[in-house]
């Protein structure tokens, strides 16, 4: 049974900020699997922290065990966490991978983050066949949503949304100067989008190597964090996407004349920019920037959600087939043993050649296979209640 604990889009922003995890914290958490939890994977992005696990015992115990792993979780926070079990947990993960649970509906970055969550869990030894199957199917669903529904066409990335907002505020970005603080996925997406829009950029990061790597992709200068005040002073805007808390403080931000505020987009969770007391700075978070909307998006979401439901049902049928497998084998084995015993007794009283006896035996096994085809098919596709009834009807639970 899959269980999940989610602080996602619907959770209060302050809770998501307190529970935010970087990859090193995720790896440390995966190494502390508590009793009651089997396989474990963690999906930690800028705007969500979610734990997925298999329950070794009662679901409630597994949920409490997952909660104990989250640093900074308070007793009063439980009412703001989503607890999901079984099919509900699987469908939620599929929706997340499809971009249907993102702040920016359909944004593509989340698919890579789901893929990374599985990879990290496998590297840490906490993900086994169940997580590999569920996450693998979620990734496949996310790809199909983007290639087989209009959502992949109408949705835009976080970087594209940021660029659109800045372009509106600055009446175009061609020839504008800006700085990107950070070199992770969100920062990289924003930098590439800004470069395509014609902006001249500087990339600032905590490590020079990561800044240089991103800067080389967008024809930008790479500088260290210590250079932020100087870079801000010569820029018209900044996009900040880092982890680890506040990095940009009021004194880092440049003084601007009245009517020409310095524009800052903070895509970080928790927030990385503190502009307290700075009336000459316009600070916006991703939650404050409108993403795609309108009838075209609504129609695309309907199609995407229908595809997700089909994929969840398909996974459920696959799981039922695996659950029914032992019962199907037992049913056929019991039928074959019974027929072989009866045929052996019948042949003992007949004067048949070995070839004739073999033909009789083969004929009876063909009859068994035909008779068992119907019950096996029903058993394979049965819901748990029907499967249990068939098992009791044929006495398979006594075998």
Give a description of the structure.
The protein is an alpha/beta fold and 399 residues long. It contains 14 helices and ten strands. The chain has a six-stranded parallel sheet. β6 (200-205), α10 and β7 form a beta-alpha-beta unit. The longest helix is centred in the last third of the chain and has 54 residues, at 295-348. The radius of gyration is 29 Å and the shape is elongated. The two termini are 25 Å apart. The mean pLDDT is 85.
Largest sheet: 6 strands, parallel
Continuous helix count: 14
> So what's the overall shape?
elongated
What does the average pLDDT come to? Answer: 85
Class by alpha and beta content: alpha/beta
Number of domains: 3
Helix proportion of residues, in percent?
Answer: 40-55%
Strand content: 5-15%
Report, as a whole number of angstroms, the end-to-end distance: 25 Å
- The overall strand count is 10
CATH fold-level label of the largest domain = Beta Polymerase, domain 2
Sheet with the most strands: spatial strand order: 7-6-5-8-9-10
CATH architecture of the largest domain: 2-Layer Sandwich
**Poorly predicted segments:** none
- CATH class designation of the largest domain: Alpha Beta
What is the string of helix and strand elements? EHHEEHEHHHHHEHEHEHEEEHHH
